[in-house]
Structure formats: C-alpha cells, structure tokens
Amino acid sequence: MIYPIKNNDPALSENAMRLLQSRYLRKGVDGLSLETPDDMFRRVAKAVAQAELSWGGLQEVKQWEDAFYTTMRHLFFLPNSPTLMNAGTTANQLSACFVLPIQDSLENIFDMLKWTTLIQQSGGGTGFNFSNLRPKDTYLNKTSGTASGPLSFIKIFDAATEYIKQGGKRRGANMGILSITHPDIEAFITSKLTPVFCPHEPTLILPKTTSPLNQKSG
Fold first, then answer.
1. Alpha helices in 20-133, H assignment, sequence order
2. Phi-psi region of 167 (alpha: psi -120 to 50; beta: other; left: phi over 0)
3. DSSP 19
4. Domain extent listing, the chain
C-alpha cells in the first residue's frame, strides 16, 4: 500500500513515496507500514534530539526536536539512510559508513568478515584497505605453501555481502581499495573487467604514499 500525500506531509513524489514505503517506514509483522513519512520525520527528530540531554534539559530537547523535524519535513535536509531507518527503534544504529582494518592474518581477515556482516545487518556500509595482504603466490614459511593474494579475499567479502541485506531492507555495499605499490595492483585494476567478479564491491586504487608498503614474506 502506498500512502497518499496528506496536507501535513512533505511534497514527496510518487517515486519517493514508494521508496519510503519499501525501505524506510517502520513495518509490522504483516509487512504493512506502521507510520507515514511525517511520522518517520517526527520519530527521527525525537530520537536525535535526545543528545541534547548531555548539554541541557528537556526544553532544549524539545526545541531541537522541533527544529530538526521542520528541517526534514520541508526537505531542507535529510540524514543518512541508517538514521531514517533506525533512529527511535531498538536498532538505533545511525552510522552509514565503517572502515574495517584488514591485516595479513586469517584470524583478522575472518574476524573482520564477521563484523562486516553484523554492521551490514544493522544498516551500515563497509570499506576495506587490502594493501596489507601479501601478494599472490608469496611463499608461506608456516605452511610451506603460497598465499592466495588480496583478490581472493575480496571475493569472499563480496560473496558474504550477496546474502546480507543492510538493515534487512537493501543490498549490502562494500568498498575495497589497494595501494598502487602493491604487486597485485594490475590484477586488481583489471578484475572488474569480468562482470561476475565482485558485483557488490566497487574497487579503488590507493595513491602512492611516502611510506613503503609493509609486505610480509612468511
């Protein structure tokens, strides 16, 4: 069901109303919306204004709640998607972007994969710098084998994202970057030429810095 635009609702296009209905308005167990866009703006404003309790009292909270509500209602400013989705709910996770440190160890890599899924489940997006991973085919002293390289782990993060919806409402999103000084940079640059390679993971090249890349050999 698409709610009609009421007199007290902002001037939203039909497409905007459909988007709000599918992703942002709170829903009941039957999948039907429990709020209108105006209700959503009030919910968000009330939740965000609670921060004023750290500097003032209830009067300041109400003042900034009304100010933020008015700003959103007239579409002068809108916060990020997690704020619209989660503010004033049990999730209450308002951040949109997280950068997770990827180190050159299986323990760290798969620990970060766990946090990736939890962050995306709450509605956030994730970014990674894979430059610390040793190049493909590097000899491994511990196992006498060879490293699979950063691209193989990028595929794992992308595959996990395929099955996790951000906040249960939209596809997860990742950003993966690699230093231009990394030995696997050419393979990284051309990887997206294959349509099936990491469709959910935009890739960026990290410019060369003054400090050399710390690559491990064992």
1. 37-49, 58-73, 81-86, 106-121
2. left
3. H
4. 14-86, 97-206
Report the pLDDT value the prediction gives residue 108, as an integer from 0 to 100. 96
| 185 Cβ contact list (under 8 Å, min separation 6) | 178, 179, 205
Q: Which residues of the chain have pLDDT under 50?
A: 1-5, 209-218
Other C-beta atoms lying within 10 Å of the C-beta of residue 180:
14
Q: Could you tell me if 25 and 88 are in contact, meaning their C-beta atoms sit under 8 angstroms apart?
A: no
Closest CA to 100 of 85, 91, 111: 111
Return the closest-CA partner of residue 98 out of 157, 148, 153.
157
Q: What is the pLDDT of residues 25-44, one digit of tens each?
A: 998 888 888 999 999 999 99
* Secondary-structure percent of the chain, ordered helix, strand, coil, rounded to 5: 40, 15, 45
CB of 126 closer than 8 Å to CB of 176: no
Q: How far apart are CA 53 and CA 196, in angstroms?
A: 50
Question: For strand 145-146 and strand 139-140, is the pairing parallel, antiparallel, or unpaired?
Answer: antiparallel
